[in-house]
Give the backbone structure.
Amino acid sequence: MGKGYAEGPAAEEAERRLEELAAGPPGDALEERSAVYGSTEDDPERHFLGWVGEVDPDELFDSGAAYGITVVRRAAAAKP
């Protein structure tokens, strides 16, 4: 007779997760940054405008260069 949870896929997954936690965070974890999204007169669809620090969301809005601005966290190395 089986021992239920102590055997099989659930136990294997629990052991795999424990090993993963013991190893620490992955070395290739991507840095997260604040990305600015919004719309412009040329492109009214919401799109990536730049990274905070490279573009100023308040300045974009105040100047009228962009509208509907949002700031979200994204992986810096990934294409937004």
Remarks:
- Residues 9-23 form the longest helix (15 residues).
